[in-house]
Amino acid sequence: MRATILIISPDRFEAPGMELFDFPPIFAGGPEWLTKPVLIALLSSVVVIALCWAAFARPATVPRGWQNLGEYAYTFVRDEIARPHLGKDTDRWMGLLFSVFLTVLVWNLMGVIPLIQLPLAAYIAFPAVIAISVYVIKIYLGVRHHGLLGYLRGIIHLPGLPGWAYGLYAPLILAEVLISSLFTHFVRLCANMFAGHMLLAFFSSVGFWFLFEKLTPLGAGVGVLGVLMTILLTALEMFIQFLQAYLFAMLAAMYISSGLRGGH
């Protein structure tokens, strides 16, 4: 697997670009789909399964170690993500929401792990798969519990809205609930991870170039600034990675709730 942090020319500094996300097959002549992002996806699945197994396979009355960490994460997802939106249906959907939160969080954290340094959610196909799955569940629940017409009626109903205004309001709210909500679910996550990875790659490249490749008295200050910015942005990026996993799982809970309740 090749490194993704530095894009260096022998004669001049070149800022990182889209080549950071372009990976050939792992093995020469191997299948085109077997690339570094695919390996990271498989590794992320193993990590999530291993964490849950270590935390919950043999639960003790007094939690310690991995169980303590797992119960803290589970409680966070239940109380801060699921329960505010799903209420009495929380426990039924906790398996899905807990898996979504952990998976997206691990995907994101791969961007700051040495030698990996690639947030998987920056590839739009990966969060799109989860978002589409949640979307299908939302529509299925809405039609199953309320019928097609009842579900659509629940979406467009707005107490106090004059009848003549529904001609304008109904198409807009239907487009938001049935179309744009799907794309905003995964595009927000992808865009944040993509932008964060590009910023980290840029400043780390600046530090490496001016401190190691082309060290000069004048350029040393720029190199030090690049290193300091890389450190600060890494800390900020870790916070954003957690925040985006939280928002992604929270939106999943909201959409599932909208299907169950038949509203928007």
From TrEMBL:
InterPro entries: ATP_synth_F0_asu, ATP_synth_F0_asu_bact/mt, F0_ATP_A_sf. Gene3D superfamilies: ATP synthase, F0 complex, subunit A. This is ATP synthase subunit a. One of its GO terms (molecular function) is proton-transporting ATP synthase activity, rotational mechanism. It is found in: Membrane. GO terms for cellular component: proton-transporting ATP synthase complex. SUPFAM superfamilies: F1F0 ATP synthase subunit A.
